[in-house]
Amino acid sequence: MSALATDTAGTAPREEARPGLLERLGDRLNPLVVKEVRQGVRSRVFWVSFGLMLLSCFILSMVAYATSREDGLSTQGQGFFFGFYVCLAMVHFFIIPYSAYRSLAREREDETWVLLILTGLGPRRILRGKVASFLVQAGLYASAVGPFLLFSYYLNGIDLPTILLVLGLGASWLLFLTVVAVCVATLADGRIGRALVNLVLLGTLGMALMYGLIAAFFLSEQGYRSVVRENGFLLATGICLWVMFSYGWLLFETAAARLSLSTENYTRGPRLALTVQMVLTGALVMGLWLWDTPPTAAAAATSVLGCLHLCVIGIFVATDVDGQARALRVLTRPWSLLRPGAVRGFRLIVLLVLGWTALCMGFFFLSLNSSSSDSSHAHLLGVLAAPAYAILYLSLPLVVGRLPSSDRLASPAVVRVLFFAMAGLASALLPLLAVLFDQRVDDPLFNLLNPFVGVANFSDYDYSVQETKMNLGLLACVWLVAVLTAFAADRALVERERRAHAS
Question: Which own/partner pairs from 230-239 qualify as long-range (CB within 8 Å, at least 24 positions apart)?
Answer without folding.
Answer: 235/288, 237/169
